[in-house]
Every structure is written in C-alpha cells, then in structure tokens.
Amino acid sequence: MVSVSKWNLIQSLCSVLAVVAVPTVFASPDERQISLFISKCVQCHAQPHTGAPQVGVPEDWESVIDQGEDATLVNVVHGIRGMPPLGYCSACDEKDLRVLTRFAAGFPDPEEGKN
Ligand code: HEC
C-alpha cells in the first residue's frame, strides 16, 4: 500500500518536472526572469485569443525567428502591433528582454556563439 502512494507521488513529481524542463531547452532565464515572464509576457503569450504567438507553439514563432534576433528585440523594446513596448515589463532591463525573447521565441544557442 505504501509503495502505491509513493509511486503516485513520483508520478506527479515527474509531470511537474516535465512541464518545467521543456522551455529550458531554448534558453536559461534565472528565477527572477522567469517570474517576470510569468507575471508579464504570459498574460498574452499563453492566451491564444490575444493574437500573440504562443509559448510552446513553435509554428507561431517561425516568422519571428526568420527575421533574426536583433530585429525581434527591437520590436520587443518598441512594441509592434498588439505587442506593447517592453511587453509591459518596466522592470525588465535589456538583458532580461533578450533572455525572455529567446525563451519565448525559441531562438537557438542562448549565450554561445558570436556577439
Ligand atoms: C498585452 C499583450 C502582450 C504582452 C504583455 C506581451 N506580448 Fe509579446 N506580443 C504580443 C502580440 C499580440 C504579439 C504579436 C504582434 C504582431 O506581430 O502582430 C507579440 C509579439 C512578440 C514577439 C515577436 C515580435 C516580432 O518581432 O514579431 C516577441 C519576441 C514577444 N512578443 C515577446 C514578449 C515578451 C518577452 C514579453 C514580456 C516581457 C511580451 N512579449 C509581453 C502581445 C503581448
């Protein structure tokens, strides 16, 4: 009996970890950046009716990735159509926005490569 409930616990831990682990394939925001992401960006980027490209839906970000990271970052800072300037994140500095843009869109190779 005890082993059954342990197994249930392990199963639920695994499903929590799976959800948390998926986005870290693309970039590695720190805890502060993740909480900014959750309190700001996710309001739209996990709400399909807003028209924002959705986190975890790679097709939504294809054209964004095609235009390149620097052009995208300019749009994030200045806003574009339904995307408000800074994504409403007045507490985000440039580095935060860069990390969160990578994280949301799935730009490859966060800190590596050319600068
Ligand atoms: C009020 C809703 C809203 C919030 C908050 C928001 N976004 Fe957006 N975002 C949008 C919408 C809508 C678009 C699509 C704009 C378009 O292309 O028409 C978008 C587009 C983008 C794009 C693609 C820009 C491009 O060049 O096409 C990125 C990257 C992005 N958002 C990142 C973020 C990040 C990072 C945050 C948090 C700091 C954030 N967004 C917060 C609504 C939002």
TrEMBL record:
Domain of life, per lineage: Bacteria
SUPFAM superfamilies noted in UniProt: Cytochrome c
Domain (Cytochrome c): residue spans on this chain: 36-103
Entry-linked InterPro entries: Cyt_c-like_dom, Cyt_c-like_dom_sf
Keyword terms, alphabetized: Heme, Iron, Metal-binding, Signal
Signal peptide from the UniProt entry: 1-27
GO-annotated molecular function: electron transfer activity; heme binding; metal ion binding
Pfam families linked: Cytochrome_CBB3 (PF13442)
PANTHER family in alphabetical order: CYTOCHROME C5, PTHR40942
Annotated protein name in UniProt: Cytochrome c domain-containing protein
